[in-house]
Design brief:
Number of helices: 24
Oligomer: single chain
CATH superfamily of the largest domain: Sulfite Reductase Hemoprotein, domain 1
Shape: globular
Radius of gyration: 26 Å
Distance between the termini: 41 Å
CATH class of the largest domain: Alpha Beta
Helix content: 25-40%
Number of domains: 5
Strand order of the largest sheet: 1-2-5-4-13
CATH topology of the largest domain: Sulfite Reductase Hemoprotein, domain 1
Largest sheet: 5 strands, antiparallel
CATH architecture of the largest domain: 2-Layer Sandwich
Number of strands: 20
Strand content: 5-15%
Length: about 750
């Protein structure tokens, strides 16, 4: 029988900090009041989000037999009576600062996954843990049990400073300038619940990296990113601000070439104060700090932060958090170092695993081992196994990674064969960490309300296919990264991957077909050094063939020593798209019904009741051709951008949006002049004001891309602005496809 929240409250008395006890009591009362209808849902939504409690989708998360599709072999989610606060369970996000977790915490997570979830914990791309299928009335007890072992869910979601991430091998890395772990921890707890961080319009993400050239913590795609730097023997940070992925990604901009370490906390506080004061509050689509910096310019933003820093009242915590920084969170080995002795009778599969999952630390005789978690999932029994192993071989020095894995640090190299055997017994010895088979994925249509296509289903399929042949691949292919997002929001980090995919849909003859946009040219290294662009949408079921074709062509045509990014840049986006054009064609439903079914779902994606052909062929609405032409214009804008012609790229991107709007309006307005002002006027009246164009997940965001491009048109634009317009045009066209499907009565 499940222990009640009140019982846990009494049992854990004295194990939780007094201030946190009071906060959890307040939250528990808010849950009760919301259940009684005494708190408005909009108000409570922000309350629960700031404590890590999300809603969860169930429509595309069901198989035709009614079971959850999180993974076909998973058990059904726990069920409760009808008197729940939500109609269905939700998701609980659990903050793990810099990814650091110990054995007791792993065991508590295992218990919570069994008691409140489906027995599965999920590691995210921000080093958090998530539990799905959690009921809202269970969340106070869950939070108390986490708090008793030093874990909080506070500000894991909502308009707040999210989990602070850091390189998982910080402190043992060969190329780092210094260990950033204690600084990431200090900033985490300094900003947690800080009054200057409670009035943001959107979330704020921070990352720390010990070096510049590796992927580490992907500093350049964060709202604030800090790379370790040294100057005259003094520690500091190369500080970046204003990065972000989302629908339209933006590279972070250099804020300071060298920020002394003692200025880290007050400067972060000043940045948060400027963002809270001047950031957008009403329109969530432009409320991230990257939009504020684009509006003000980086120099003006730096000036405002400098002014704010000067007027900040002194806070003893600025230095208290950094006191004894060299001993704070200092790790030590459990066992003496030893070297790996290769013997003829090594465990089966050890050589392959050791090649991809073992990193030799800079401390001689020790290694860091990556535990590969397919799609970031780990069972309760496996969590307990990791806890036991971490006590046996190391001093519980375990971390999560942004690639949804776990790492064990300070393993004596001589213990690797024995460790491998124990991991294999727990089904945790999958090789391929950091290779093309180690696919990253967001939850997608399994549980996310924003999911369009099944990112986990596709990722699982790719992972299975690639794992079978990873050790016979050329090294140039094996080292590539694949990232998959279920929609345009880039939670799977598709923009920063060698091969990125994000979910979209297309409508054909009354049927809605799951697709993925193919994104090429992103760079995982150099802390997310560059972002890719979408070159075209391919039906979901053809993405594995797409991966095979692209990688085969690269291997066959690359020049000696040429990277994948270099190859894509050399041959150009037009050639990349040409190699996939036949895969982009949607076959007739009766000829290939499997194309109309998404991965990990036995049902047809959606079924419409129009498109019946007449005589010898189907009657094709002209808008199908018009929207296809818009996609062509958008792609031509990419080619212009690639060629360095920013002005032409911007013009083509704008025109693709103008022509998309015109095509849609012709379904509503019989006759109208097709000049820009007239189209914009009709677009507002017939598609925006009526909310017909509003995306179910993004609202009016995509409409605003077109309206603002028209309103603020410039003949000369920077390459950065042109890149942004190209991204926005592609998303506007995707929204136009969805709007047309709604016009025709097709379901997404």
């Amino acid at each position: 029988m499940k222990t009640s929240n009140s019982q846990w409250k009494n049992r854990l008395a004295g194990q939780i900090a007094p201030g946190l006890v009071q906060e959890l009591d307040v939250y528990e009362n808010e849950v009760a009041l919301r259940k009684q209808g005494k708190i408005d849902e909009k108000v409570f939504a922000e309350t629960r989000l700031r404590r890590g409690a999300y809603g969860q989708r169930y429509d595309n998360g069901q198989r035709n037999d009614g079971k959850q599709t999180r993974k076909l072999e998973y058990p059904e989610a726990p069920t409760k009576g009808p008197n729940t606060l939500w109609d269905a369970p939700g998701m609980m996000r659990i903050k793990i600062p810099y990814g650091g977790v110990n054995a007791v915490q792993l065991e508590v997570l295992a218990e919570l996954a069994e008691e409140y979830s489906d027995g599965i914990a999920h590691v995210t791309t921000r080093q958090d843990f998530q539990l799905h299928f959690v009921h809202i009335e269970d969340t106070p007890a869950l939070m108390r049990r986490l708090a008793a072992v030093g874990i909080t869910t506070r500000e894991a979601c909502g308009n707040s400073v999210r989990n602070v991430t850091a390189c998982p091998i910080a402190g043992v890395c060969h190329t780092e300038r210094f260990d950033v772990t204690p600084y990431a921890s200090a900033l985490t707890y300094f900003l947690l619940g800080h009054p200057d961080c409670q009035d943001f319009g959107r979330k704020f993400k921070i990352a720390f990296s010990g070096c510049r050239d590796e992927a580490c913590a992907l500093v350049r795609m964060h709202d604030m990113g800090a790379m370790a730097a040294m100057r005259d023997g003094q520690r500091g940070f190369e500080l970046y601000v204003g990065g972000g992925l989302g629908t339209v990604p933006q590279q972070a901009r250099l804020f300071a070439e060298f920020l002394p370490a003692e200025e880290l906390l007050p400067t972060a506080q000043a940045i948060c104060r400027v963002f809270a004061r001047l950031g957008e509050k009403k329109n969530r689509n432009t409320a991230r700090v990257k939009f504020l910096i684009s509006k003000l310019g980086i120099e003006e933003f730096k000036r405002l932060v400098g002014e704010e820093r000067q007027i900040l009242a002194h806070d003893d915590r600025w230095t208290a958090y950094l006191k004894d920084i060299d001993t704070t969170l200092k790790e030590e080995p459990l066992r003496p170092s030893s070297l790996l002795e290769i013997k003829p009778a090594m465990p089966e599969g050890f050589a392959e695993w050791e090649k991809t999952n073992v990193y030799r630390q800079r401390q001689g005789g020790y290694a860091t081992v990556t535990i590969t978690l397919p799609l970031g999932d780990i069972t309760s029994d496996q969590l307990r196994a990791v806890a036991d192993i971490s006590r046996k071989y190391i001093k519980e020095t375990v971390r999560t990674t942004v690639e949804q894995n776990l790492v064990l640090r300070w393993i004596p190299q001589g213990d690797l064969p024995a460790l491998y055997n124990e991991l294999r017994a727990a089904k945790l010895a999958t090789p391929g960490a950091g290779t093309i088979a180690d696919v990253t994925s967001c939850p997608g249509t399994d549980t996310c309300k924003l999911g369009i296509s099944s990112s986990r289903g596709l990722s699982g399929e790719l992972r299975e296919r690639l794992a079978e042949k990873q050790f016979v691949m050329d090294e140039a292919i094996r080292g590539l990264r694949i990232k998959v997002s279920g929609c345009f929001n880039s939670c799977g980090q598709h923009h920063a991957a060698d091969l990125g995919f994000y979910g979209v849909s297309r409508n054909k003859a009354g049927y809605t077909v799951p697709h993925f946009q193919v994104v090429l040219g992103g760079q995982w290294q150099n802390n997310a050094g560059s972002y890719g662009l979408a070159i075209g949408a391919v039906p979901s079921k053809r993405i594995p063939e797409t991966v095979d074709r692209i990688t085969s062509r690269y291997l066959a045509d690359k020049q000696p020593g040429e990277s994948f990014q270099g190859y894509v840049k050399r041959i150009g986006k037009a050639a990349c798209k040409t190699m996939l054009e036949d895969l982009m064609v949607i076959p007739e439903h009766d000829a290939a019904p499997d194309v109309y079914v998404d991965w990990a779902d036995a049902r047809e994606y959606t079924i419409g009741d129009i498109g019946v052909g007449e005589c010898a062929g189907e009657v094709v609405n002209p808008i199908d051709f018009q929207l296809a032409a818009c996609e062509r214009e958008s792609f031509e804008a990419q080619l212009a951008l690639e060629a360095g012609d920013a002005s032409r790229a911007a013009r083509l991107a704008y025109e693709s949006m103008l022509h998309g709007a015109t095509a849609l309006l012709k379904q509503r307005v019989p006759v109208f002049a097709e000049d820009g002002d007239t189209v914009v006027g009709h677009f507002r009246t017939h598609l925006v004001d009526t909310q017909l164009f509003h995306d179910p997940f993004a609202g009016a965001k995509f409409a605003q891309y077109f309206l603002k491009a028209h309103e603020k048109w410039e003949l000369t634009v920077s390459p950065e602005r042109a890149h942004q317009l190209v991204e926005e045009a592609q998303l506007f066209i995707e929204a136009s496809h969805a709007c047309y499907a709604r016009m025709q009565g097709a379901k997404r």
